[in-house]
Amino acid sequence: MAAVRAASAELGFAEAAPAWRLRSEQFPSKLYAPLPGRADAFHRGLFLFCCREPPCCAGLRVFRNQLPRKNDFYPYEPPSEDPPLEAGASVCLQLKSGAHLCRVCGCLGPKTCSRCHKAYYCSREHQTLDWRLGHKQACTQSGNLDNTVPDHSFLFPEFEIVIETEDEITPEDVEKEDESEVIGSMGEVPEEELDSMAKHESREDKIFQKFKTKIAQEPEQILRYGRGIAPLWVSGENIPQEQDVPDCPCGAKRIFEFQVMPQLLNYLKADSLGRSVDWGVLAVFTCAESCRLGAGYTEEFVWKQEIADVP
What's a single GO CC term here (predicted)? Predict the structure, then answer.
């Protein structure tokens, strides 16, 4: 299992009309997860989207695509590593060739401003938003209008992703954690009551305790990756059974690949209770065979688990 935490500058979770994208090759559009030994999956990406608004939170979508090393889209050799953008620098969403991109969300922008013909948009709504927040004044001005993107407070902030191999938790670690909690409460609760509580410890308590003990090693981790292993659940409620995870259209079973942790909400500035997207765990399941797609995309499966009220 790899524990992934945010550091600074390029984690990216860009909201796309209105959704967010997770990328990890430079991280902000996709989780880059190639499969060793698979020539057809040298480039393999997982894209996770969800609506930012609470009424639409059920609209979680995850897509996979994969390509061999020699393909029509990426060079055979990796590009040079350029230094990151300076703090506060504008993001360039205008491609030098090919399709035009929306100035607000970065999606395909087939619509254009009828006055300057330099600003492109995916929809009338995003054109209206950009007009109200600055394009009205800049429309007729010359300059790099087509290369810079104003801050609409629409995209999620971007950070760098740091990936580290997770250390195994020993039974001694769990025992020490349990002991510290008991000691901390001994002065307030009678010993007889503590014994009674220990005997009646629920499955929910044990699952939540395991979650806390695991993430204590990396409290700020935002993502956990481990293809084919068991996810780390935050609650004993709403854990999917085998029949709850649909098979891939190719006929193969889907297996767990990675999970998004609740700590990410703080980085995305989307942790306003009742007013923004919320989750306990987002668990992503992908085709066990990682079936061949050509140059296309296929939808995979994501399971959302809320944080239960644990006494």
Answer: cytoplasm
Cβ-contact 51, 57 below 8 angstroms = yes
The rounded distance, in Å, linking the Cα atoms of 46 and 23 is 8
Q: Which pLDDT tens digit goes with each residue over 166-189?
A: 776 555 554 554 444 444 444 566
When pLDDT is cut at 50, 70 and 90, the band that residue 86 belongs to is low
Rounded CA Rg of the chain: 23
Buried b (16+ CB within 10 A) or exposed e, 231-264: bbbbbbeeeeeeeeeeebeeeeebbbbbbbbbbb
d(CA 256, CA 240): 11
pTM of the model: 0.71
Q: Taking 70 as the threshold, does the pLDDT of residue 43 lie above it?
A: yes
* Contact call for residues 275 and 38 (beta carbons, < 8 A): no
CA distance 300 to 246: 9
Non-local (6+) Cβ contacts of 150 within 8 A are 90, 103, 130, 133, 134, 135
Pick the closest to residue 119 from 97, 136, 102 (CA basis).
102
171-185 and 203-215 helices, crossing angle to 10°: 110
In whole angstroms, give the CA distance from residue 121 to residue 113. 8
Nearest CA among 255, 195, 271, 263 for reference residue 234: 263
Calculate the alpha carbon distances from 107 to 39, 93, 94, 110 in Å.
29, 9, 11, 10
Q: Where are the domains of the chain?
A: 93-146
C-alpha to C-alpha distance for 197 and 304, rounded to whole angstroms: 30
Would the pLDDT of 280 be above 70?
yes
Total residue count of the chain as it appears in this document? 311
